[in-house]
Amino acid sequence: MRLAVIPARGGSKRIPRKNIRQFHGKPMIGWSIEAAQKANCFDQIIVSTDDDEIAEISRDFGAEVPFIRPKELADDHTGTIPVVAQAIDWYKDQGLNPKYICCIYATAPFIRETDILSGLEKIKAPGIDYAFSVTNYDFPIQRAITITQSGSIEMIDSAFMNTRSQDLKETYHDAGQFYWGCAEAWTNDIPIFSSTAVPIVLPRHRVQDIDTEEDWMRAEVMFDAILRFE
User: Fold this and answer.
1) Which of 11, 63, 133, 162 to pair with 142, CA 20 to 30 A apart?
2) Domains along the chain?
């Protein structure tokens, strides 16, 4: 069984109700649900939420909400793995056996079904626990600086002070869109960032974390540009 799990709790603080706030003509979560549907690789697409309004909107878009997420898994400190593990355990209690589970974030309007399918192919390989979206940093992180309490700057690692940018190893970060994982990896609390995970590399122009109003504005501008030029 292949299962898509879209976590969407109701208590977002920095952008209130961001999971269902309108983004380019539809509630934000609608983009994630529709991408999962277009991938056409899931036996079920569910939303894990503690919120009745989010549940109703998710059902309107064709997702299932078979349970209401327990309150102890809906606070500011709950991570992705326990939320997905709880969904897997719920299905096992119903006599079903999810094998590959894709966690899709509810605030990922740039997600594409082709990337989801690429992740599915990679998660099937022997010895792989996770496959998830990443993108590269646009500036070498080895030359990052910090601002001290006195207002001056200092390098994070001065060993790279005189190293040319082109001589530094390329680095990547989590794109925050989707995470394929084997059921055993999710339920055994195996870290996503590990040697048994493989990347799905996305172009930077299709990656934007959305945690603040500034992030939201940037995402809207990027989305407009993609519609015009792709």
Assistant:
1) 133
2) 2-135+174-229 (3.90.550.10)
